[in-house]
Structures are given as structure tokens and as C-alpha cells.
Design a protein that fits this description.
- The protein is an alpha/beta fold.
- Helix content is 33%, strand content 18%.
- It has a single domain, classed as Alpha-Beta Complex (Inosine-uridine Nucleoside N-ribohydrolase, Chain A).
- It is built from 13 helices and 13 strands.
- The longest helix has 14 residues.
- The protein starts with 31 loop residues before the first helix and ends in a 7-residue tail after the last helix.
Amino acid sequence: MTNPSHHAIFLPFAHWSLRFAVPIIVLTACFPLLAQEPRDNPVPVIFDTDIMGDVDDVGAIAVLHALADRGEVRILAMGVSSKHEKSPLCLSAINLYFRRGDLPIGRPQGDAFLRDSKYNAQIAAEFPHPLSSAQDAPTAPQLYRQALAHAPDHSVVMISVGQLTNFRDLLYTLPDRHSPLSGPELVAKKVRRWVCMGGKFPRGKEANLFHDGPAAADAIAHWPTPIVFSGFEIGVRIKTGGKLASLPKSSPVRRAYKLYNGVRPHFSWDQTAVLYAVRPDSQNWRCSEPGICHVFPDGTNQWIAREDGKHRYLIQQAEPTETAKTIESLMLHQPAQP
């Protein structure tokens, strides 16, 4: 949700020069201290999606709500990185279906990537949503500042499954009523790690990075905490969604897949990022050695192995079909009856 009480508290955004002086965290293993977090404590998450072109965004949102209902995650806020005016409304409808209509939703503050969608306008038209229009939502960078400011230090896992426009803009934010810290300082203090569905490894060109190449290059280069990438090569081998046909017609998840491809198995890029973010100690993947994901302005990425690097990327460990079973079982989750 986004209700009017959330709107008046966000200050206008102002750009400033990127002069980041924040500590770099050097890791010598695949984040072992992070992977051993107690499972009885839900992981606080901020989720950022374009929910516009591909339908795996909807699958990822279903997975996130399923994990929240299991007590594994606590969703602090969600943001939309695309400029499509129906994307926030579609997201709001799905959240309401999963009994979380009060979740705050953010929108891009300026120019952002835009393309046609096979499903988001129809979902917004067919299903109720508390958010009346995209412009009624606060900007994502300011929403993220508010959520981070109230979170315990080094606790929040941020997940991106779209363009990195909002994450770049978060780094440019100034101190405000929520925190006296600049964007980079606030991220360094509050964020545990960022899990990014993006890139191809060890080198390639993938949509989430090249649709806003300058933002991807800027955000990844200056992000002060560890980043784990779930690359194109991970989700392309994992097919889910075919079993959604068994869901009731009242499900916006089923409807979105119906509109997109007739409810047939589909690639699961975004779902892998969500699953790893919440269950980093699962056996589905292992992490690469440390290094740096260098992103060129056109969105092409190249892996540079470095012992002091703060980036990793996922490498498939379990059979993709087994990972698909885990993901699809979560996508099939239905909310409890009110």
C-alpha cells in the first residue's frame, strides 16, 4: 500500500556530487557470518522491481510473500524502478492479494526505463489496489531512506530485480528528517548486503544492467556493502510457472502468467535473487571467489577477480530442476483467508 499518511513526510530530492568516503568491507569467504544468521529472526528486506517487461517479477513477488508468511522475511518497503504508470498499481494489487496492502511502495523520482507490458495494466484494472495512482506513491529513494533509518544497523538485505535507477539515486540522497547521514553513509550503516539479479558472468550484457547502463555502472561501483549477483546464466536454466494454472482465478499471480505466456514454464531470473537473499545458506548455489563486477556505461559487465573485492556471483550447485521445485512451491503459496 501507499496511504496518504506516508506522502507528506518525504522531502524533495536533490542531486549532489558523488564523493563517497565510506569503508569497504573485505570478505574472505562467501559471507559466512551472514549465512549463519538465525532462521527464527526474519530477514528485513527492501525489494526493488521493474514489474513491467518479463513476468518473473511477479513470480519473485509471490516467492517473497510466501517467505514472509513463513516468518523468514520481513518486508520493509518495495519500490518500482520502471516508469510505467501501471507498474506501482500492479504491485499494489499483488501485495493486497497477499494481505499486505499496507506495504509502502516507491516510484522512480525522475527519468526511468519504459517499455510495454503484457500484464501490469490488466492486473491493475482487474484487481483492487490501495494505491490510486503512481504519482500518489513517494519516490523510492526517499522511501528507502525512511525504511533504512528505522532499521537496526547492518541488518537490511536489499534486493533488485530490475534496473538500478533507484539504487543509484539512493546513493545521491542528502541528509533529511529521517537520518543525518548521506545516501552512501546510510547504506553503509544499515545494509547487510545487496542481492542483484543482473549481469552475465564472467562477462556479458544483460537487460537489468543495460536498460539503464549509467545507473548500473554508478550504483555498483559506489555501493559500500557486499553485493551478490544472480546472473542471467542462473535463472535461464530454472523454469517455473506451469503449475500456476492450478491456482484460483482470483490469483493475480496466475493471471499475470496467463496474460504473459498462457501459464507455461518460464525462466526464473528474479525468483533466484529473492530465494538467495532470504536463504543464503541453501545448497542451491555457491558463491564465486571475491572480485569486482565492473559495469561499463553501456551496461556490459566484466568480472575482475580480486581477493579484496566485495562482490560475488552465484554458481549453480544443485540441479536446476530441484531449485525449480523449491521456487515453484513458493510461487504456489496462497494467502490465509481473512
